[in-house]
Amino acid sequence: MTYFAKPKLLRPDTPKNALGYTRRDYEGAISSLCAGCGHDSISAAVVQACFDLDIQPHRVAKLSGIGCSSKTPDYFLGNSHGFNTTHGRMPSVLTGAALANRDLIYLGVSGDGDSASIGIGQFAHAMRRGVNMTYIVENNGVYGLTKGQFSATADRGSKNKRGVVNSDSPIDLVALALQLGATYVARGFSGDKAQLIPLIKGALRHRGPAFIDVISPSVNFNNHAVSTKSYDYVREHNDAVNRLDFILPRDPVEAAYAPGELRRVVQHDGSVLLLRKLKTDYDPSDRVGAMNHLQERHALGEIVTGLLFVDSTAESMHAHLNTVEKPLNQLGDAYLCPGNAALDALNASLR
Q1: Domain segments of the chain: what residues?
Q2: Among 56, 113, 178, 250, which has the highest number of CB atoms less than 10 A from its own CB?
Q3: Distance between CA 251 and CA 249 in Å, rounded?
Q4: Entry pTM
Q5: CA distances from 341 to 321, 346, 351 (A)
Q6: Per residue in 190-220, pLDDT tens?
Q7: Burial annotation 139-151 (CB, 10 A radius, 16+ → b, else e)
Q8: Across the chain, how many H-helices and E-strands are there?
Q9: What are the backbone dihedrals phi and psi of residue 287, each rounded to the nearest 5 degrees, phi first?
Q10: Which contacts qualify for 20-27: CB closer than 8 Å, 24 or more apart?
């Protein structure tokens, strides 16, 4: 096996933030995702956001589940805390960590399969409980690790790489987050870092559940049966002495466009995304208005991007539960075991 390492030497004029860190200090391991994957652009946006906000890497706790998206925390903030949970269970593990230590900045990274299928119940309760976190879903509509089956966010009528048409209605995680009580809700596009970086920065500074759904195209969509560029076609028409499996590198799908503009984005397989960026005069303080706007644009086949809703007066789970400010592992026996009198008083308050 060949291992790659990033060079440790930096140019003397490498930019540093107020803490004296460079962007390299916020990076992680070299990505093993397909070349051109939109998830890598999201990782780069997280790196830039943390660099710009002068966040100390060791103050960040990054958690993820299972899937291509959940591998990405290994590719950023290599000097922060990290935990890779089982499939769909990231929100509950993050909630427990946040209750034990409120001093850390919690960043949850998930995918459309991890959050909209097996983990949808966990997603719902994290939103409604007001967990103080940034929750990013890297959404490509497929199960990338298991060869491209539809995920629960895939649009009805879309085709997978085998030509099968999806007949199920999609789950809109943004609409769910709005309905469940998230106090910072946004949608971004991995190919528009100019929009995505500020959205992540705002989420990291928000107090309460901040949710960002990031549309992130997969570079492997066009490996379908009728394509002459598919692996099966090449194998059937190639007289090779050995059999190698690889994914051809792709250019990242990028799109920079003005507020209020509709942009037609062609993906690698020829399918098209219609991205509509919110206008500058859009009111993000109206939760019901945000839900209506989403539905209106969805009926036109458009995907709305930008900060859809924010409650600047929101409180997090710690205020709701009146939790102690000091991390639990720093509390002494007198606090953790206050005695029978304190226990009796607590039981009496619950009767």
Answers
A1: 23-320
A2: 113
A3: 7
A4: 0.85
A5: 21, 9, 16
A6: 989 999 999 999 999 999 999 999 998 877 7
A7: bbbbbbeeebebb
A8: 12, 11
A9: -65, -45
A10: 21/51, 21/54, 21/57, 22/51, 23/47, 23/48, 23/51, 25/57, 25/79, 26/50, 26/51, 26/57, 26/76, 26/77, 27/75, 27/76, 27/77, 27/78
Return the closest-CA partner of residue 210 out of 295, 316, 291, 115. Answer: 316
For residues 298 and 172, the answer to whether their CB atoms sit within 8 Å is: yes
- Please name the residues in contact with 198: beta carbons below 8 A apart, sequence gap of 6 or more: none
Q: DSSP label at 183?
A: S
In one-letter notation, the amino acid at residue 173 is L
Residue whose structure tokens are 């291509």 = 68
Q: Which CATH architecture has domain 23-320?
A: 3-Layer(aba) Sandwich (3.40)
Q: CA distances (Å), 134 to each of 59, 69, 128, 316, in order?
A: 14, 15, 14, 12
Crossing angle between the packed helical segments 193-205 and 38-52, to the nearest 10 degrees:
50
Token pair recorded at residue 168 = 């199920």
Residue 301 backbone zone (phi > 0: left; psi -120 to 50: alpha; other: beta): left
Q: How far apart are CA 58 and CA 184, in angstroms?
A: 24
